Amino acid sequence: LYSLIFGRLRISPEDETTFYSNAEGYWKDIPPTVDGMLGGYGSISSIDISGSKAFLLKLIGEGEGKTGTSCALDCGAGIGRISKRLLLPLFNTVDLVDVTQEFLDKAKTYLGNEGKRVGNFFCTGLQEFVPENGRYDVIWIQWVIGHLTDNHLVDFLERCRKALRPKGLIVIKDNVAYEGVVPDEVDSSICRDLEILQSLVSQAGLRIIHQEQQINFPKEIYHVHMLALR
């Protein structure tokens, strides 16, 4: 479907359309559950959230360089697993964006009473999503950048940069390949190595201010890194 040249994703316009439509088709067949969101690894959810919370608490609140807790955006939110366990407990308002309407519909019940503090449910792919300028203290992007081509990822990060409040942060948490780019034909995604990801971040005019690897995940899955950007 797409060619990898010098470790970078090169994709024609026709193949790009297929790349996105195949991914949408994949997620439409996935049950709206925590296990579904995590590709059968529902058991790692608590470890994942704990790692994310420890990372995020270093970056929010009072103090030099820290960001506020007014509003966060959950990108590729699914049924709201991260919003429920991580973002809503820390932020006054959270917006969710996901390409699958069924997941967002499920989120409205899954989030329970705290769902009243959700500002918006946006149903769209991130390649087309334009977040409101100056709205967010934190934009959380987890396990979804593999569904964006290199150019669309750079463009999206540039739009996210404009959507930050003063001192706001973008956090990417995602799988990292050992070397180069690894395609996954099953869910129509790719996994980039850290060097490529860092290069795309830089192209978007962002710099990494803090970076950590998630610990205590199963050995058979990709390493997962968290990058805070501004």
Automatic annotation (TrEMBL):
Q: Name one GO cellular component term.
A: nucleus
Subcellular location as annotated: Nucleus
Record SUPFAM superfamilies: S-adenosyl-L-methionine-dependent methyltransferases
The GO biological-process annotations, alphabetized, read as:
methylation
Which Pfam families does the entry link to? Answer: Methyltransf_PK (PF05891)
The kind of enzyme this is, by top-level EC class, is transferase
KW Metal-binding (keyword) present: no
**UniProt EC number:** 2.1.1.244
Reaction equation(s) it catalyzes: N-terminal L-seryl-L-prolyl-L-lysyl-[protein] + 3 S-adenosyl-L-methionine = N-terminal N,N,N-trimethyl-L-seryl-L-prolyl-L-lysyl-[protein] + 3 S-adenosyl-L-homocysteine + 3 H(+); N-terminal L-alanyl-L-prolyl-L-lysyl-[protein] + 3 S-adenosyl-L-methionine = N-terminal N,N,N-trimethyl-L-alanyl-L-prolyl-L-lysyl-[protein] + 3 S-adenosyl-L-homocysteine + 3 H(+); N-terminal L-prolyl-L-prolyl-L-lysyl-[protein] + 2 S-adenosyl-L-methionine = N-terminal N,N-dimethyl-L-prolyl-L-prolyl-L-lysyl-[protein] + 2 S-adenosyl-L-homocysteine + 2 H(+)
Q: Keyword Transferase on this protein?
A: yes
Q: Which Gene3D superfamilies match?
A: Vaccinia Virus protein VP39 (3.40.50.150)
Where does it mainly reside?
A: nucleus
UniProt keywords (A-Z) are: Methyltransferase, Nucleus, S-adenosyl-L-methionine, Transferase
At which positions is S-adenosyl-L-methionine bound?
G76, R81, D98, V99, T100, L126, Q127, Q142
Example GO molecular function: N-terminal protein N-methyltransferase activity
Q: Which family does it belong to?
A: Belongs to the methyltransferase superfamily. NTM1 family.
Q: What name does this protein carry?
A: protein N-terminal methyltransferase
